[in-house]
Request: fold
Amino acid sequence: MRATRRDILKGMTSLAAISAASSAVPAFAQVGPSAVGAAAEEVVKSVCVHCVNFCAIEARKVGGVIRSIRPDPARRDIYNHGLCPKGVSGAFTSYNPYRLKKPLKRTNPKKGLDQDPKWVEITWDEAFQTISERLAKIKAENPSKLIWQHGHGKYLIGDNFPKAFGKAFGTPNIIHRTTTCEAARHVGDDVTWGYHGIIPDVDNCNLLIAFGTNYFEAEQFARWLDHAVTRAKERGMKVIVVEPRLSHPAAKADMWVPIRPGKDVVFVMALTRLLIDAGQIDEPFLVTYTNAPQLVGPNGRILRNAAGEPLVWDTVTNAAVPYAEGVKPALRGSFTVDGKTVRTGLEVYYADHLAEMTPEAAGEIAGVPAETIREVAKMIAAEVRLGTTTKVQGYSHRYRPVALYTWRGMTAKEFGVQNWRSALILQMLLGIPDAVGGLKLGKVYDHPEYMEPAKCEYPPKRVDLAKSVYFPNGHHDVCQQVALTVLDPKAYGLPYVPEMQIFYATNRPMSTADTGPQFASMEKTFNVTIEVHMTETAWMSDIVLPDLGYLESWHFAPTRASPWAKHTAIRQPVVSVFGLKHDGYTILWELAKRLGILDAYVAAMNDTWGLKTVKFEKGKEYGPKEAVEVIWRDATGGKPFDDAIKTGFVGGTVKAEDFYGKGVEAKCKGPGKPKLQFYGDGLAGTAAVIEKTVSEKGVKNLDVEKYKIAYAPLPRKEHAFPTPHVEAAKLPFYLISFKRMYRNQSACSNTNPILNFALGKDAAENAVLINGRTAASIGVADGDLVTIETRIGKVTGKCKVTEGIRPDTIGVSYHYGHAIPSWPEYSRKGIDVNRVIELHPDVICGMNSTNDTKCNVTKA
Ligand SMILES: Nc1nc2c(c(=O)[nH]1)N[C@H]1C(S)=C(S)[C@@H](COP(=O)(O)OP(=O)(O)OC[C@H]3O[C@@H](n4cnc5c(=O)[nH]c(N)nc54)[C@H](O)[C@@H]3O)O[C@H]1N2
Ligand SMILES: Nc1nc2c(c(=O)[nH]1)N[C@H]1C(S)=C(S)[C@@H](COP(=O)(O)OP(=O)(O)OC[C@H]3O[C@@H](n4cnc5c(=O)[nH]c(N)nc54)[C@H](O)[C@@H]3O)O[C@H]1N2
Ligand code: SF4
Ligand SMILES: [Mo]
Reply:
């Protein structure tokens, strides 16, 4: 089922219930300049949650109406100096006439984007009654049949309330969107150093190599990183941007390397080889902090003694021993232990994978001249200052002012984990992790189990198959898999049939590659969507609940801080525009109450929030404000909540010894400590568990050979060849997508006219980016209509001829091409690229493949 927009627009009868025509005129429009003059002014400190950057804001109100949103100057040292156009025009999210204002019930049982839901407005009581009756039935039968999916919702109220609800209700299916977002990067980190979260130490860095991390247009931490990079560039930091498209960061870089999509891994491997050949390696770091010297047996696993300790080759005693005081481990070489040939992890990488990865060989695959790869390697060697230390605030520490960084560029693809691991490994080779000017790692070794072989359960407990044999390291849920399992639960051995889905602030089917099955799956379940405006997901729902916006509601806010700061903040309401009653928090509270599980919910809330001194008490009513107060008081050691309301936060900067000294320094350095997994022993172990599980349990639909390649202990050439690059090799172009500054995700800002009209034509729609040479060869000119065809479908849109993309690559931004009939024309323009992007998730973590597809392009 794949409806075209024309199908959807045709014959809709119930639009009045959700269209602007029927809405009250919001206060925003009623207040003209003269009315403003005399009215009182008020400033509210809060947090922008328009996107995931969580910028600190000051909203100025006059006469109760928002007149401006600006960055909070008090939090400049903590995080953001500025706001983006979305945040500045964010008041529109509240005053938007296209907002949902009443609960809606579908009266047409037939679901589809081409079906008129025939909405009727219902009361909140009826909505809660209908939902809780269904939930009670499911809870009595098998609570796992309830699926809660959130996207942006995680940042509106946090995921601890939904998780607590899931616990109290009894479903494991509380699913966040991270596999459509950045999961591969997180899992690459998880399996390598036991947790995730990296940030370059830009303030002290001299060479930043950015692999598709879009800090001027998208990116998380962007409103800190944009200023930090700009300041560092003024100081002299060089920036190399490696990505197929001339993004804004690439346009402002010292060097743009337009790499072929999906081939970053071989580019990095070639750099690694060149640096090893040039003797540019940090031997003491590799020996003291990583498992690179550990011995790998013929079975591909690290050699261990009877006590389970990993062995290295001691060059003093010429024996395989655990790394201890006095032992001088060999970093390279092949040795005989108990009659078996063993090699160090570094030796295995070089001999088996890097040796063939000459700049010429890698350049050929990556579409980058060998000379460019050599030049980048030279720049790294010139800047990395092996063997040196420096002082920051009097704290003396390893100095390696080079960082390789990515967000979705390297990771939104089939072998995302391995692409990112290649960069982590290169940085280990140079001693960059947690060095001054290098790559700062978050909470090293916080989850040591992530570095162990995964459990690979079968049959799966969860509908997204996370941590099952299908996605053994799905530590961050596997959101797009839900639809596929719902369509055929038996195929995956799921022991139940899902019945109901609640979507909280996510336009899941639209944000996922290959949208067709995602929408089709919604026909199988009873769906409730909690939204601010009608979306495609809501359109496929049985009940739609209108939510308060981020400027109207409370949250113990998700916060971001620069690496040099820490803080605790709240989000508080600035306005109440339509007098709506509920948000995600109150909806969960009311449902828990009606289901009779409030006590269990409250107990679980204390658990999921990890409250220590101030806790939720059973038998008490907690509105959203009171709930935030409890968490704030616990988190701040009892600071008065009035402070939070006045200033919005408490926080300060971090000392150098804590910044550099708490990660790998404290956790990994020296004998007896866990080591960064240069050699992915845990990955190799998981491959073995997968093979065993598949054979023992008779799993039919899992290709063990493919999993073995994905779960290779070290990055290898095959990781530059995701499925479509192999199977659809004949299609001439690579297709990529990316974010734009003026839009947020698939639906957050599309009905905001300010972003379209104030920013002009360029913001109004997206286009098919085609290189000038390619355009000439297929006979299209700027503005012509072109059709992109992939193995799963076609889309048509306007072409934009540019030198800012590789000739073999086609770029189409995310965010556009919506199918909601009740939206104004301006908000529906452009191309929905996810209709034609193939889904080939990274099987390690379940990451969605948004940058892997191959396509053809022709004049329409
Ligand atoms: N304006 C705006 N800002 C946002 C968001 C938004 O929707 N709008 N969303 C937020 C969210 S949730 C996230 S996760 C972040 C994402 O932030 P980023 O990951 O920084 O942004 P993206 O544009 O998704 O992708 C990054 C870049 O990868 C490049 N790229 C594509 N394929 C490849 C490849 O194979 N190799 C390399 N090296 N590069 C490639 C693209 O050209 C793009 O510039 O942005 C956040 N900020
Ligand atoms: N092709 C392609 N696909 C991509 C990406 C890409 O770059 N290219 N990016 C990916 C990334 S990084 C991500 S994170 C996902 C995002 O995917 P989703 O989680 O689906 O994100 P959104 O589309 O932002 O969905 C959030 C929904 O929340 C609604 N919303 C906003 N504010 C509120 C509120 O206050 N209350 C409620 N109830 N709802 C609200 C919005 O209207 C929107 O419909 O998409 C991914 N998909
Ligand atoms: S970057 Fe995101 S959080 Fe910051 S102002 Fe823009 S929309 Fe708001
Ligand atoms: Mo994301």
About this structure: The two ends are 23 Å apart (CA to CA).
